[in-house]
TrEMBL record:
This is Upstream-binding protein 1. Residues 207-231, 360-383 are annotated as: Disordered. Keywords: DNA-binding, Nucleus, Phosphoprotein, Transcription, Transcription regulation. The keyword Nucleus applies. Residues 29-266 form the Grh/CP2 DB domain. One of its GO terms (cellular component) is nucleus.
Length: 383
């Protein structure tokens, strides 16, 4: 069940004198919709943590679409259809940042497959279900709030497919099922956002979710009563909690090449010798194309496709843990060191434009009494 954060705050002693300034439970606005995933939550989740639900790969799960409006609330939606988009996304923010690259890699390994589908024959009350080839992790449909509506979803990706090492489901990354609902706008399209909610899930190979749920239940039974008080019970259903709408163009990137100016320098190496890279120039402002060249030059060819939409600044934003999670321990650490290291130059060369005036650093060439060629330098200027 959703947590009541306001009641948690009021329970703290420091806020006891501020009760009158905070809204009461009766004044709390209920969401207009409620989405219920009809499968049990894990019992091995601590009290104040978000619920976690285990799903089997490819299995159809019912999500009930409930009209939660009070009398007279949002009258403009009465007897009208709304559109909902259901999608599976990453829970981890680091993977959200690289979502486009992660999904492209998944598509490359499993051509023709989708991460999420709607089981149309089992669904009830949905109209015009659609999937887009460019959005493998999302599907949309229309539904009437006055009628019973249940959409059955199938998640085809498993949590271990996005981890560097394939240890099994419980070591995999968590996902989120998110539903965004829109009303018909003035332009005749369903663009007016009304409500969004999501829940945390992990996806296992067939029957793996049942085994994991059983394992968690057995572990909890072995705990003492005092330890059990720290954990929330397993609920028969999973209620999606309110969240921000998922951005439509979160990972659309432009492929425009950077203009080689002083403030937008291309990525290149300065070579004094063919095999002696002195210093990496312009990485923070490198274009996507130049970043690809740098990856290939530094023997990261196998990850060029994964970082195909990354500029130099995007790469520099990734932490060591991010790169290890994306590329694995060996290549992740090697890439991190290549990005962050600063090579000590063996030779520094200073150059300047030729000037008619005499330079303060004056080099004189001459011949000594023995006929040997020598170079002497004299520094002229104020002390």
């Amino acid at each position: 069940m959703p947590k009541n954060y306001e009641s948690d705050v009021l329970a703290l002693p420091i806020f006891k004198q501020e009760d009158s300034s905070l809204p009461s439970e009766n004044e709390t606005k209920n969401p207009p919709f409620q989405y219920v995933l009809c499968t049990a939550t894990s019992p091995a989740v601590k009290l104040h943590d978000e619920t976690l639900t285990y799903l089997n790969q490819g299995q159809s799960y019912e999500v009930r679409m409930l009209d939660n409006r009070k009398a007279g609330e949002l009258p403009e939606l009465t007897n009208k259809m709304v559109k909902s988009t259901v999608r599976v996304v990453f829970h981890d923010r680091r993977l959200q940042y690289t979502e486009h690259q992660q999904l492209e890699g998944w598509k490359w390994n499993r051509p023709g497959d989708r991460l999420l589908d709607i089981d149309i024959p089992m669904s009830v009350g949905i109209v015009e279900p659609k999937t887009h080839p460019s959005q493998l992790n999302a599907a949309e449909f229309l539904w009437d709030m006055n009628k019973r509506t249940s959409v059955f979803v199938q998640v085809h990706c498993i949590s271990t497919e996005f981890t560097p090492r394939k240890h099994g489901g419980e070591k995999g990354v968590p996902f989120r099922i998110q539903i965004d609902t829109f009303a018909l706008g003035e332009n005749g399209e369903y663009t007016e956002h009304i409500h969004s909610a999501s829940c945390q899930i992990k996806v296992f190979k067939p029957k793996g979710a049942d085994r994991k749920q059983k394992t968690d239940r057995e572990k909890m039974e072995k705990r003492t009563p005092q330890e059990k008080e720290k954990y929330q019970p397993s609920y028969d259903t999973t209620i999606l909690s309110e969240c921000s709408p998922w951005p439509d163009n979160a990972y659309v990137s432009t492929n425009q090449a950077a203009t080689p100016t002083f403030t937008n320098t291309p990525l290149f190496f300065l070579y004094i010798h063919q095999h002696l890279p002195i210093y990496l120039i312009g990485l923070p402002t490198a274009s996507i194309q130049d970043t690809q060249k740098w990856l290939q030059k530094n023997r990261f060819n196998s990850y060029a496709r994964l970082f195909s939409h990354f500029s130099g600044s995007d790469l520099l934003k990734l932490t060591r843990d991010d790169l290890v999670q994306i590329c694995g321990p060996a290549d992740g650490i090697r890439l991190f060191n290549a990005l962050k290291s600063r090579l000590c130059p063996r030779l520094t060369v200073y150059v300047c434009k030729e000037s008619p005036q005499e330079s303060p650093l004056l080099e004189t060439h001459g011949t000594n009494e023995n006929g040997d060629h020598n170079i002497s330098s004299s520094l002229r200027g104020t002390k």
